[in-house]
Amino acid sequence: MRVGLVVVSHSGKLAEGVAEVATQMAPDVTVKAAGGLPDGGIGTDFESVLTAVQEADAGSGVVLLYDLGSAQMTAELAVEALGDPGSAVVVDAPLVEGAIAAAVAAQGGADRAAVAEAASSAGGRAEPAAAEAGQEPSDGATQRTELTLANEVGLHARPAALLVRSIAGLDADVRIKRGDDEADGHSVLALMSLSARKGDTIEVTATGGQAGEAIRRIQALAERNFDE
């Protein structure tokens, strides 16, 4: 069972669009849209949000994201009305980026707290190298490889999500580098911010007990063109 998501928006079309994108990134995660008023107008509806939360909960809890302040209030009221309010949490996060990050985390089997954290930390750009950031490398052997992207869209939304999902749960710190930019291999948004296109070469570095397995999985994805 995976954590479910609910997208709360004043616009039905906006909620549905964000939910659609998130579902493309995480096909096994239940993402429900709760946007607009029952008559199609702009606003948020308590009953619609409550129903969406109940439908999204498969047993591992639900994370709710919202667009504007009053949507937050409606989402929080819906959570309070649940039989077990502790089964759901409203997260302050960028709506689109947060939904994508949360969906990918849920797809990888993360618990509700980790999914909520993925959403709230979303929106970052490519990260500096660990040495430049003053970080110590993770324990364990380090392995590296270089890959040339041959798929049409490069390392953008869907391929980035596939990469993150492929290494989820491994004991490995994975870094992807294009030129001078480096990103966390476990972050869809950071990978997308590299703007790696077809024909670009990326360097993959993995450190940890399962570094070799992480490298092999990413190589396999690249060899099959990220299933395009």
Automatic annotation (TrEMBL):
Chemical reaction(s) catalysed: dihydroxyacetone + phosphoenolpyruvate = dihydroxyacetone phosphate + pyruvate
EC number per UniProt: 2.7.1.121
Top EC class for this record: transferase
Region of interest (Disordered), residue spans: 119-142
MF-aspect GO terms: phosphoenolpyruvate-glycerone phosphotransferase activity
CDD domains in the record: PTS-HPr_like
Pfam entry (one): PTS-HPr
Domain HPr: 142-228
Ranges of Low complexity composition bias in the record: 119-137
Assembly behavior: Homodimer. The dihydroxyacetone kinase complex is composed of a homodimer of DhaM, a homodimer of DhaK and the subunit DhaL.
PANTHER family registered for this protein in UniProt: PEP-DEPENDENT DIHYDROXYACETONE KINASE, PHOSPHORYL DONOR SUBUNIT DHAM (PTHR38594:SF1)
Job of this protein: General (non sugar-specific) component of the phosphoenolpyruvate-dependent sugar phosphotransferase system (sugar PTS). This major carbohydrate active-transport system catalyzes the phosphorylation of incoming sugar substrates concomitantly with their translocation across the cell membrane. The phosphoryl group from phosphoenolpyruvate (PEP) is transferred to the phosphoryl carrier protein HPr by enzyme I. Phospho-HPr then transfers it to the PTS EIIA domain. Component of the dihydroxyacetone kinase complex, which is responsible for the phosphoenolpyruvate (PEP)-dependent phosphorylation of dihydroxyacetone. DhaM serves as the phosphoryl donor. Is phosphorylated by phosphoenolpyruvate in an EI- and HPr-dependent reaction, and a phosphorelay system on histidine residues finally leads to phosphoryl transfer to DhaL and dihydroxyacetone.
Protein name in UniProt: Phosphocarrier protein HPr
